[in-house]
Amino acid sequence: MHSKSNLFLIELMIAVFFFALAAAVCIQMFAMGHSINMENEQKEHAIMHSISLAETFEATDGELVAMAEILSGEKKEDESIALYFDENWQSAEEEEAAYEVVLVKSEDEDFSYASIVTTECSSGDEIYSLDTQIYHQKVRGE
Predict the structure, then answer these.
(1) Contact between 57 and 132 (Cβ < 8 Å)
(2) Which residues pair with 103 in a beta bridge?
(3) Terminal C-alpha separation, the chain
(4) CB neighbours (10 Å) of residue 64?
(5) Residue pair 113/130 in contact by the 8 Å Cβ criterion
(6) Structural domain boundaries of the chain?
(7) For 39, what's the count of Cα atoms within 13 Å in the CB-facing half-sphere?
(8) Is pLDDT above 70 for 2?
């Protein structure tokens, strides 16, 4: 009778071990899923703000002063504009920013180009980048 109770305890310990192992795997999967969800949310916001900046670039015909006024951004001296956001993707001052979206403008005879890069301020890691251009249509007779 004593050996049957020992066998039962060994079976119970093995069952608890497998349950604990399965629980550890499930917890890791939930943690990984949460991490992936946060990365995707970050990228979604970066894409949304980059597209908004690109559309404003096209709507203002590449005029950075007008863009800064519309978007409450900061026009830099080097033909660029910067927007700053906190960790919840709300507008913020540069000192309090968790994310930065920068548009750098360049031009040639027929086009205005914009390179838009969204970065995480603390690490400097690029989250998303977008390039766009505007064709400057010439009027006949010019």
Answers:
(1) yes
(2) 81, 116
(3) 107
(4) 18
(5) no
(6) 2-135
(7) 9
(8) no
